[in-house]
Amino acid sequence: MALLDRVPGDLNLYIGGIFTLRRREALQQANITHVLSVLRIPLDQNLFSPFKHMVVEVDDVEDENLLEHFPATNKFIQDGLNGGGGVLVHCAMGKSRSATCLIAYLMQKHNITAAQALSHIRQARSICEPNDGFMKQLELYGQMQMPEQVEETPAYQRWVYQREVELSRACGQAPEAEKIRFEDEHTNGEASKFELRCRKCRRPLATSQYIIQHAASTNTNQSDSEKSAVSPPKNCAHYFVDPLTWMRPELEQGKLDGRLECPKCHTNVGKYAWQGMQCSCSEWVVPGISLSKGRIDEVRSRTSTEIRRPPRSIPPLSPSPAFSRQNL
């Protein structure tokens, strides 16, 4: 009789497809007590007796939000292991959705990267391959340091906002007013390196932590935190920024694009385009919310010490300490 696909290591953890549930003798020998189903199809409840069962109803598509379920699936897996039994995680084919949830668990359990966890799981089931959307969610999960409450994390909230913008863009519409995220309403009091002021009336319009860096303004010799608080290069005619509260009257009108006026002197200081905007350096930024360098002055902060917030763009994964099978 074929054995179940067991993840290498000391954990009594298994992965498979839906037909694995019909191998009752193998499940019994593995002492399976908990079954996590990650799929959206009608399930025969007789298959799950007498197991403790959890279902996450998601499709295997790149735009499905599986990230929001990681804290719950991690807890379910850990509860099963704490009870002394085995845990089976399955989807339809045992390839993408189930592998994604197992990777998230191993990342949190052992503080490893998504790539390391996937490589480890493939020792048990070589066909495991989360779709590209799920892999990006796992990478974001790692950058967020695998929090217990994903939905309260600013990085997750920005990611959800970006998804809403992309969906609206695909439909040729502006995002709904209540779904626009004005970043300065979520600030935690961090200091800035400089501020941008209207050249005509000197009214402050933005500070460095709300500037979005794009590819042309990336210096490979700088750290990620340094990239988040520097000016765009000289060949860029714009500062691309997050939506800010003073822009609310304009951005909530539901228009795809338009002009931005200084709220004090009503000078035209920039423009926006939810579908994206091409900078003078040829890079596209989506959504494009820009302040024109010709209408703005950059005023450096007088403080010598700066606390910077993370960059808007998602940085690549930093290398994690190597791990061996003995760690798992």
The gross shape turns out to be: elongated
Number of domains: 2
Would you count the extended β strands for me?
14
Overall residue-averaged pLDDT value: 86
Q: What is the count of DSSP helices, taking H or I runs of 4+ residues?
A: 8
Low-confidence stretches: 217-229, 304-311, 313-327
- Estimate percent helicity: 10-25%
Going by CATH, what is the homologous superfamily of the largest domain? Protein tyrosine phosphatase superfamily
CATH class of the largest domain: Alpha Beta
Using the CA coordinates, give the radius of gyration.
Answer: 24 Å
Oligomer: single chain
H-E order = EEHEEHEHHHHEEHEHEEEEEE
Distance between the termini: 27 Å
Major sheet characteristics: 5 strands, mixed
CATH architecture of the largest domain, by name, is Alpha-Beta Complex
Beta-strand residue fraction? 15-25%
CATH fold-level label of the largest domain: Protein-Tyrosine Phosphatase, Chain A
Derived structural class: alpha+beta
Strand order of the largest sheet: 1-2-5-3-4
Account of the protein in words:
The protein is α+β, with helices and mostly antiparallel strands and about 325 residues long. It folds into 2 domains: about 5-145, Alpha-Beta Complex (Protein-Tyrosine Phosphatase, Chain A), CATH 3.90.190.10; about 160-300, no CATH class. It has helices at about 25-30, 70-80, 95-110, 115-120, 130-145, 155-170, 225, 250, and strands spanning about 5, 15, 30-40, 50-55, 85-90, 195-200, 205, 240, 255-260, 270-275, 275-280, 285, 290, 295-300. Strands 1-2-5-3-4 form a 5-stranded mixed sheet. Strands 8-13-10-9 form a 4-stranded antiparallel sheet, with no helix packed on it. The protein has a 3-stranded antiparallel sheet with strand order 7-6-14, with no helix packed on it. A hairpin with a 6-residue loop joins β9 (about 255-260) and β10 (about 270-275). α3 (about 95-110) runs parallel beside α5. The radius of gyration is 24 Å and the shape is elongated. The two termini are about 25 Å apart. The model is unreliable at about 215-230, about 305-310 and about 315-325 (pLDDT under 50).
